[in-house]
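Continuing the batch. This is chain 6 of the set; chains 1 through 5 are on the previous pages. Same settings as before, nothing changed between runs. Recording input and output for traceability.
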Amino acid sequence: MRYFFFLGIFLLSTLACLAQTSRERGFAPPAPLQDRFWEDYPQAERLHWEGTGTRYVARFSLNALQMQAHYDEDGTWAYTQVEVPPQRLPEKILDHYRAEFGAHPLLRASFHDEPGNSYFRLEIRREGAVRWLHYDDQGEFIP
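Output for chain 6:
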């Protein structure tokens, strides 16, 4: 009896996973949103769309950088996040990081562009926890 119970749970789990996978493969955002994306990033490569409620995320490559552009369902751009290799960060940011936080490993760096605001975000591990350092687009530290 226990065997059939666990077999049933396994089969239901497998079906749920397969249904989720097939939905993701056929995912396409609304046409106005796709049009807006291609207006913003006509040279984008390796595009993959994800939907999160009323927000859509386009993951893609551009100029050898990994990017995410976030849009509302009507095609309104919300923000873009660009993964930045540490060696491509502005020298001012690297100097500040090394002087103030150099003992803590740099896990990831990104540039965020949103309407009316752009900033760099460095993800570090400090005292066993992940912390974020923010810098404006001129490289000034934002406490």
